Amino acid sequence: MTKKFLHTDKKANGVNSKSEFIIPDIFELKSRLVGLETGTIYQCGLVVYTGLDLSPADIFTKIEVKRPNTKIDKRQAELLLSNFLIQLKAAKIGKKLAIDTQFGLIETK
């Protein structure tokens, strides 16, 4: 789908924030961004180039490895992740993005 992804931004999230990829909260189905590995809530993230073509299935695989006991409504999560990746594909690398109440990515400063 895309070779771009959202990553934590130490300038926006604090110097002590973990360096990790972030996704919409598919675990609680809330319109916020969370760390893929930790579940930490983030206000925004930075669009980065990964070099790998990523799909929702790739993200599910990563979640199963990093958070094996996590329960997810896969049908709903796949829709959210597909929409997320489509929006990321259109975003420019280096832009800082947040998520709105409708799970849309919006540019922030």
Spatial order of strands in the largest sheet? 4-3-2-1-5-6-7
Number of extended strands:
7
Assembly of the depicted chains? single chain
Mean pLDDT: 91
Name the poorly predicted regions. Answer: none
Tally the helices.
Answer: 3
User: Biggest sheet, in brief?
Assistant: 7 strands, antiparallel
**Over the alpha carbons, how many angstroms does the gyration radius reach?**
13 Å
Residue fraction in strands: 25-35%
Pairing-aware structural class of the strands and helices? Answer: alpha+beta
Specify the helix fraction band.
25-40%
The SSE string, one letter per element, is EHEEEEHHEE
End-to-end separation in angstroms reads 26 Å
Number of domains: 1
Spatial shape: globular
Task: Please describe what this structure looks like.
- The structure is a single chain.
- The protein has 109 residues and is an alpha+beta fold.
- The chain has one domain.
- 29% of the residues lie in helices and 33% in strands.
- It is built from three helices and seven strands; from the N terminus they run βαββββααββ.
- The chain has a seven-stranded antiparallel beta sheet.
- The N and C termini lie far apart (26 Å).
